[in-house]
């Protein structure tokens, strides 16, 4: 195992944000390596994306709950991430809320991407919430994960316009594209030691 900054990536879906991060690593834009990719969904695209890139990928059954991991699953996720010696947990479309023991194991070392300009529209289908609300500017947020839902300190945000003829799909696509630009930049800054956290404020060092 090298002494590079190591990422543990968790996702439940197709894994396009993971792909953007993996491609940025390959292009030399993020000084890090992927230690492991984990999913709570057996057939998730993110696992295929990892295997295509010859990166370690593992499905871990999430247990009996719908929106969180049960205790056994939580222990298995934590153990896999510790064994892989990861420095940062990168949530890339992981659709379960992380709880106490997981958060304590990686305090201050978990980041997430959310498809809205937080604190507006936390929770599910945020792009749809934005469209239904009628906002003219939407976007995405990369933030540290704390015990709340989409409530941790903001690392970076990118805005996109909401167009009059947008559908949920077209707006989602535009937000997704912004995520693919923003998330690798935020992960790169953390891997370089280029940010500091002062309470809720995340400062990017010059
Ligand atoms: C992304 O749009 C991400 O913001 C969202 O899931 C999608 C995953 O896409 N995450 C959340 O809504 C978490 N609250 P991907 O699998 O193609 O990266």
List its traits.
206 residues, alpha/beta, Rossmann fold, 7-stranded mixed beta sheet, two-stranded antiparallel sheet, 9 strands, binds glycinamide ribonucleotide
Provide a descriptive summary of the structure in words.
The protein has helices spanning 16-26, 45-52, 71-83, 100-105, 126-133, 168-191; strands at 5-10, 32-39, 57-59, 88-91, 110-114, 137-144, 154-161, 195-198, 201-204. With 206 residues, it is α/β, with parallel strands linked by helices. The protein has a domain at 1-107: Rossmann fold (3-Layer(aba) Sandwich). The strands form two sheets. A seven-stranded mixed beta sheet has the order 3-2-1-4-5-6-7, sandwiched between helices. It has a two-stranded antiparallel sheet with strand order 8-9. The longest helix has 24 residues, at 168-191. The protein is globular and about 50 Å long. The model has no long low-confidence stretch (mean pLDDT 97). Bound molecules: glycinamide ribonucleotide. The site of glycinamide ribonucleotide has 14 residues, from helix 1, strand 5 and helix 6.
Unreliable residue runs: none
Structural class: alpha/beta
Shape: globular
Question: Over the alpha carbons, how many angstroms does the gyration radius reach?
Answer: 16 Å
